[in-house]
């Protein structure tokens, strides 16, 4: 082996007649100016007449896991990635890409520009650019269809979903899977392949796109764009990929680049990049370094829908789980829910039968609270009743060890009151999961007045192992997520009272990008839960504007999907407009002397969004959030807020102080009695700090 001829983030070395270019930009070899310059410099140093082939690989686990997204905030600089892919493709001797680890975005585009692709068994390949608001911009939309066909390319690029190495081999995306796993053996296998390779140059740009049924492709593209729920880059990606079947490679590349450059500065792309970085920042940093405690055995109390979902989530993360439920029928039902979910994963080929058996072997269903004595963490998920929860934790404290962490999954109750009788209260906290707990990614880690930094850090490490997006919140009614959603729903009820219909409101907010409108969500959740809460707070109802329509809907026996009717009728399990609901609403307005107004979709969207922005400001003013960005993370991961909109904090920052203050004044004016106004400086000051 010759000594490397280049340094920095790209190394070139010779292995006889094989030149090896190694990307070395920890931690994931992302594409930067220096990396791109390094690749071109390495190619320029290769003595072509003495070289049989070039190997392009990456130091560490990955070839290249994509671009450095921070570069997208500025104008492109040369050399651009398209210039690098063009150089690889036109290089006079064959270039062999070693696809390993996460080879995504620009990394896969580099590999596609090479003549041969070898992959390790654990490699993941994908073009996820649409998830950050752009499309592949270095030939991916034109080379991938030539490698795998238009239909597969549409699937991969429009959805952004990656494929595993074995599937990539089956699709023709990689030419061969590498057998060796040891680093030295892997390197020897790569070099042996390169020395034996005699296939010459095989640029994908010279390969024709396989013929395909255009009409079927367009139907496929429409379905995939619809699933993206308004994500602007998805529709653009579909059009550019389909163009690969109609245009020359040169014309397709030119169209791709033009669309990429147009998208990179869009509000959607900025919003998605903002969330990308916000989600990767630490949710909590203690003032003094803290060592999280080790957790091995987790107990879950309550085998209902939420408790069994939490238990399954924890089992999937590899923990041993004690599932306590005193009612034998409820315990059996909870176990069956867990088994049913695992069977579903087997049918979807996400799980093997051996893995299912291993998971179930770590589950200990029990009706005896003493079985929890060895737990490191106990998560309570029983009924939302303060005294019942308080009694449970008082009993639990005498069973488990003094250091066992104790968590409640309450949605609204005061954690300090729940844990009032627990000794060593620094070990107590809230872990608020969202239903279904094994699927929803948001987890609110709630700090009580006594929670220690060590307890908090342990919970966050636990959340990371569960693959949850955790935010740290203070102990207050509704925490962050439910507080925000309550304000949003309340504003939608104001609109309903003033003249809009449930269908119109739902349609407007779904068009904005929400996964589901608020009245469809209410029907799905069950209207009786909120009805019971309203009855419990009837004494304070006079302090703020109150809309009685939801009560009338419930009094008519319409409790949502479970009764076949709520705001909608569900004859075939799909929401359908019901004239009886329209009559209830019209009667209420007449009784209240309300003359209905006409609302546009934009009116509805703006009112709902401003309600979220205002509540976000109130939460920030009260110190409920650890970071302003946590509000946007909560809505994106727990409530179906469109990611490509960023979130209320992101949007408010784009508005500027004058426009934001004027909008908040309008919101307070139309919302009536009891509406608090948020302080815009909570966001505008933060935006100034962020710019500095």
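-> sequence recovered:
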């Amino acid at each position: 082996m010759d000594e490397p001829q280049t340094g920095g983030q790209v190394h070139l070395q010779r292995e006889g007649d094989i030149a090896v270019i190694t990307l070395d930009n920890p931690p994931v070899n992302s594409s930067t100016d220096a990396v791109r310059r390094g690749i071109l410099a390495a190619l320029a140093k290769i003595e072509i007449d003495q070289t049989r082939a070039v190997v392009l690989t990456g130091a560490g686990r990955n070839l290249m896991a994509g671009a450095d997204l921070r570069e997208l905030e500025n104008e492109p600089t040369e050399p651009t990635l398209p210039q690098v892919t063009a150089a690889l493709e036109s290089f006079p001797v064959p270039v062999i890409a070693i696809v390993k680890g996460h080879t995504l975005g620009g990394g896969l585009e580099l590999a596609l520009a090479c003549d041969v692709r070898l992959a390790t068994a654990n490699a993941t390949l994908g073009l996820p650019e649409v998830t950050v608001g752009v499309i592949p911009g270095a030939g991916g939309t034109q080379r991938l269809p030539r490698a795998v066909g238009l239909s597969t390319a549409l699937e991969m690029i429009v959805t952004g979903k990656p494929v595993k190495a074995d599937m990539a081999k089956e699709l023709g995306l990689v030419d061969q899977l590498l057998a060796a796993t040891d680093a030295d053996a892997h390197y020897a296998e790569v070099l042996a392949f390169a020395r034996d390779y005699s296939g010459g140059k095989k640029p994908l740009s010279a390969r024709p796109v396989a013929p395909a049924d255009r009409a079927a492709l367009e139907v496929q593209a429409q379905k995939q764009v619809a699933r993206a729920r308004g994500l602007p880059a998805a529709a653009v990606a579909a059009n550019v990929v389909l163009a690969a079947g109609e245009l020359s490679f040169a014309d397709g590349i030119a169209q791709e680049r033009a669309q990429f450059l147009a998208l990179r500065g869009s509000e959607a792309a900025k919003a998605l990049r903002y969330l990308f970085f916000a989600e990767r920042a630490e949710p909590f940093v203690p003032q003094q370094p803290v060592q999280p405690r080790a957790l091995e055995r987790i107990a879950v109390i309550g085998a209902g829908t939420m408790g069994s979902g939490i238990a399954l989530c924890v089992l999937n993360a590899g923990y041993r789980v004690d599932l306590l439920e005193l009612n034998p029928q409820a315990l059996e039902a909870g176990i069956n829910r867990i088994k049913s979910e695992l069977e579903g994963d087997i049918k979807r080929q996400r799980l093997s039968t051996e893995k299912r058996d291993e998971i179930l072997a770590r589950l200990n269903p029990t009706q005896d609270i003493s079985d929890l004595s060895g737990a490191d963490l106990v998560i309570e998920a029983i009924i939302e009743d303060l005294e019942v929860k308080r009694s449970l934790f008082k009993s639990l404290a005498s069973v488990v060890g003094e250091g066992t962490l104790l968590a409640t999954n309450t949605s609204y109750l005061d954690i300090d009151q729940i844990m009032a009788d627990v000794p060593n209260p620094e070990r107590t906290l809230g872990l608020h999961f969202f239903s279904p707990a094994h699927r929803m990614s948001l987890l609110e880690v709630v700090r009580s007045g006594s929670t220690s930094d060590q307890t908090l850090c342990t919970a966050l490490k636990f959340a990371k192992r569960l693959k949850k997006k955790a935010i740290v919140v203070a102990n207050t009614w509704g925490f962050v997520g439910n507080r925000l959603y309550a304000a949003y729903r309340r504003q939608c009820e104001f609109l309903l009272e003033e003249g809009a219909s449930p269908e119109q409101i739902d349609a407007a907010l779904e068009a904005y990008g929400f996964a589901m409108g608020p009245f469809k969500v209410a029907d799905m959740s069950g209207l009786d839960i909120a009805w019971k809460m309203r009855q419990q707070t009837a004494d304070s109802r006079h302090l703020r504007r109150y809309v009685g329509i939801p009560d009338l809907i419930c009094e008519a026996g319409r409790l949502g999907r479970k009764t076949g009717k709520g705001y909608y009728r569900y004859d075939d399990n799909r929401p359908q407009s019901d004239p009886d609901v329209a009559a209830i609403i019209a009667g209420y307005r007449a009784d209240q002397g309300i003359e209905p107004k006409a609302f546009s979709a934009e009116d509805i969207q703006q009112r709902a969004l401003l309600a979220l922005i205002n509540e976000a400001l109130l939460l920030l003013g009260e110190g409920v959030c650890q970071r302003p960005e946590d509000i946007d993370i909560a809505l994106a991961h727990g409530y179906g807020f469109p990611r490509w909109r960023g979130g209320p904090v992101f949007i408010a920052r784009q508005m500027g102080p004058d426009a934001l203050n004027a909008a908040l004044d309008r919101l307070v004016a139309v919302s009536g009695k009891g509406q608090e106004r948020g302080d815009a400086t909570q966001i505008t000051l933060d935006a100034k700090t962020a710019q500095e």
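The chain has a mean pLDDT of 94.
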